[in-house]
Amino acid sequence: MKIVKTTGRDQKAAYSLLATLERRGAVKTAEVEPTVRRIMQDVRKGGDKALLKLAAKFDALQPKQALRVSQGEMLDAWNGTPQALRDAMQTAADNIRSFAEQQKPDEWTTENTPGVTVGQIVRPLESVGCYVPGGRFPLPSTLLMTTVPAQVAGVPRIVVCSPKPARETLAAAHLAGVTEMYRTGGAQAVAALAYGTKTIRRVDKIVGPGNLYVTAAKVIASTDCGIDMPAGPTEIGVTSETGDPVGMAADLVAQAEHDPETLAILFTTNEKLAKQVVKEVNNQSKDNKLARISLKARGTVFLCGSVEEARALTNRLAPEHLTVDTIADLDWVTNAGSVFIGNHSPQSMGDYISGPNHVLPTGRVGRIRGGLSVVDFLKVITVQNYTAAGLATLGPKTIALAEAEGLTAHAESVRVRMKAGRR
Question: Catalytic one among 280, 320, 403, 405?
Answer without folding.
Answer: 320
